[in-house]
Design goal:
By secondary structure, the chain is mostly helical. The chain has one domain. The protein is built from 21 helices and two strands. It has helices at residues 10-32, 38-41, 45-50, 52-59, 83-102, 111-137, 142-155, 158-163, 170-187, 197-213, 222-229, 234-244, 246-271, 278-281, 293-298, 304-307, 311-323, 327-345, 364-379, 383-406, 418-430, and strands spanning 69-70, 76-77. A hairpin with a 5-residue loop joins strand 1 and strand 2 (76-77). The mean pLDDT is 92.
């Protein structure tokens, strides 16, 4: 394991957390304040993730949720597991108490519930960015890591899922992947800076929740596997570190298992099977004979690099450091490639009405590492390179915010084309 290039300053971390959280909350409030509950109940995946909370705590009936698929046996099944709802639960309960205290309808969809979720998502956004910053600091300097995280927040579609569509799963996964990555590296630290028992517990809990929130994200678990394999103690040493904190680790395993038991109970209650690929019930599957990796990256229909061009040079640095033998780069590249290929085989490879291929948002905390390498390289060059890079970065900020402001749901469907895309870009440039 590489030693830390620079230990993060906790004051900087708190400033970063507050900046991201306050900006997310303020922008979310400006966008949703007219009806601060509407984003909770409009149909789609966001409702599918959230619906568990009112169904369990208010309606007390999981057989009559709002966004479900009716199977051949006549029963309805939620296509979405309740991992996101579990992370939303504390803020749902706060909203429920406030709704009762201030006389709002206690139905899960009135204003206090929406405001509480906006506060919650702002907190997860801030915490996720701090964890991404800590990850980047393990392999770069503080300034480069800070620039990387702020650029992720402002120049990619991460901001969209903090503000415009905050109850989708991707920001929660971003936070959890950052937590998993950071705890992995702490558990691999040597005796000079030994990990705390909390790192072992959070590693196990985040591992469980990452898969519960979005099953495809199980590929992220390759990151700790590869990093442990290449560490001095190997995978056995990593497991010994977990075992050294056996009491708290065992408790964490029990805590992490409870949501999975509940989820399997629901699947069995609905279908008769303990493990269910819910999308398969709807006829939605992977087709590895018709993969479209080029479309996922560069199509105007939600191509990742089309809407987040900051990631183009990032990919260059990721490949460069992987070629040089940096195992953090190789582990991150492995996760990125598998995510890319899996989405390219999905029947709806553009992921519906999302902005800028939302599937990659989940692993942005890992991508902060190569982004920090990129900024470190820029900062080490002459003033002309730094000036041009600064202007390009500002242009990417403007492009991202302009496209988000003009985004329409039909951008990701067949009637969208390059001419319409460039028309939108031109409108951003001309103001």
């Amino acid at each position: 394991m590489p030693s830390r290039t620079e230990k993060p300053d906790h004051l900087i971390e708190w400033a970063l957390f507050l900046l991201v959280a306050v900006v997310s909350l303020q922008c979310g409030w400006l966008l949703h304040s007219a009806n601060p509950y509407e984003f909770l109940r409009h149909g789609g995946d966001a409702l599918g993730y959230y619906q568990w909370l009112p169904a369990v705590f208010i309606d007390h009936d999981v057989d009559k949720m709002y966004w479900t698929y009716q199977m051949e046996n006549g029963r309805s099944i939620s296509l979405f597991s309740f991992g996101v709802a579990l992370l939303q639960l504390p803020f749902f309960l706060i909203g429920h108490l406030c709704a009762g205290g201030f006389g709002y309808p206690m139905n899960g969809f009135s204003s206090p519930y929406g405001v509480a979720q906006l506060i919650g998502i702002a907190g997860y956004a801030g915490a996720g960015c701090v964890l991404a910053f800590r990850l980047a600091c393990r392999f770069s300097d503080t300034v480069s890591a800070l620039l990387a995280v702020l650029s992720l927040f402002a120049a990619t579609n991460l901001f969209y899922y903090c503000v415009y569509d905050p109850t989708m799963s991707h920001l929660y996964s971003f936070f959890l992947v950052g937590l998993l990555g950071y705890c992995t590296l702490r558990l691999l630290d040597g005796p000079a800076d030994p990990p705390r028992p909390a790192h072992a517990a959070l590693f196990l809990i985040s591992t469980s929740l990452i898969v519960l929130v979005r099953q495809l994200n199980a590929v992220v678990l390759l990151f700790p596997l590869v990093m442990a394999w290449r560490s001095p103690g190997g995978i056995r040493g990593f497991l010994r570190t977990l075992a050294a904190h056996r009491t708290l680790a065992f408790s964490a395993v029990l805590i992490a298992a409870v949501p999975w038991f509940l989820q399997m109970f629901y699947w069995h209650h609905t279908t008769g099977d303990f493990f269910v690929f819910t999308y398969g019930k709807k006829g939605e599957n992977f087709d590895f004979g018709r993969m479209v990796p080029g479309m996922v990256m560069a199509s105007v229909r939600n191509g990742w690099l089309v809407y987040s061009p900051l990631m183009i040079p990032m990919l260059g640095y990721l490949l460069l450091y992987a070629w040089r033998g940096a195992w953090a780069a190789r582990a991150t590249l492995l996760v990125l490639v598998l995510v890319w290929l899996l989405y390219s085989a999905w029947w709806c490879w553009w992921l519906g009405t999302g902005y800028g291929h939302r599937g990659f948002v989940d692993i942005y905390a890992l991508l902060a590492i190569p982004l920090a390498w990129m900024f470190r390289s820029i900062l080490q060059r002459g003033w002309s390179v730094r000036l041009v890079s600064c202007l390009v970065l500002v242009a990417l900020f403007k492009l991202n915010f302009g496209l988000m402001e003009r985004f329409q749901w039909d951008w990701s469907w067949e009637n969208w084309n390059w001419q319409r895309y460039f028309e939108q870009v031109s409108s951003v440039v001309t103001g």
